Amino acid sequence: MTTDRKAEDLPLEFRLVSADQVPLAYAIEIEEYPESEAASLKNLIFRQDAAPELFLGCYLRKEDDTSLLVGYIVSTLVSGDHLTHATMSSHDPSGDVVCIHSVCVASAFQRRGIATRMLKEYLQHLQRLSDKNKSNASSSAKYKRVLLIAHQHTTGLYRGVGFVMVGKSSVEHGPDPWFEMVYALDH
Ligand SMILES: CC(C)(COP(=O)(O)OP(=O)(O)OC[C@H]1O[C@@H](n2cnc3c(N)ncnc32)[C@H](O)[C@@H]1OP(=O)(O)O)[C@@H](O)C(=O)NCCC(=O)NCCS
Q: pLDDT per residue over 64-86, tens digit each?
């Protein structure tokens, strides 16, 4: 029984979401995001195909040794200082800014610290990738920073893992304003 167990007490594993697992992420996406904000399956397939190293899943290991996807974070690379509508739907392989599109946890597992844990894992993963790219002359991208937009009520989640408020975003989508937040990576 996993009910009420906090992230640190759950057998969680973090690994990249493979192409065949994207529909599982999509099932969570459409369940948890409002219809107007949820990514389409096509979009998630595009993101996994374009930047598989930026699609990290959080899996719960079960007693029978199988695992269940309970959350994920997905991003693409962009260039420039701020997120716009255009950057939100593209991938620039030479970009040095990681644009997070979704941070999502299945509702049965929310408010147990899983998104917090996932974000910390993700930021460490990005730092490792960036360091690897830096030491590999043939590779283009060293990541400078991570950007995302969030509604006011979730900004505390991101502040809690080190993101800093940039300000109100120029992105307009739905009735509520979006706020841009940034996390600086060592580079
Ligand atoms: C937002 C979301 C990812 C949070 O996942 P989670 O695993 O429940 O988050 P955590 O347990 O790590 O939360 C840590 C802290 O963030 C804040 N927080 C998390 N979800 C919140 C919410 N819905 N409203 C207000 N504050 C929230 C709280 O301060 C929380 O601490 P607390 O539970 O001790 O009060 C999850 O609710 C979700 O998938 N929502 C649908 C998709 C979405 O909106 N994603 C964010 C896009 S910007």
A: 999 999 999 999 999 988 999 88
- What's 111's domain CATH number? 3.40.630.30
Cα 31 to middle of ligand 1, angstroms: 15
Residue nearest to atom 21 of ligand 1 (CA): 154
Number of structural domains in the chain? 1
Determine the distance separating the centroid of ligand 1 and the alpha carbon of 88, expressed in angstroms. 21
Answer whether 150 contacts ligand 1 (Cβ < 6 A): yes
| Residue 82 counted as domain residue | yes
Strands 164-168 and 145-150: unpaired
DSSP 43-58: HHHHHHHH-GGGEEEE
Question: Average pLDDT in the 172-187 region?
Answer: 92
Q: Is residue 169 part of a domain?
A: yes
Average pLDDT in the 128-146 region? 78
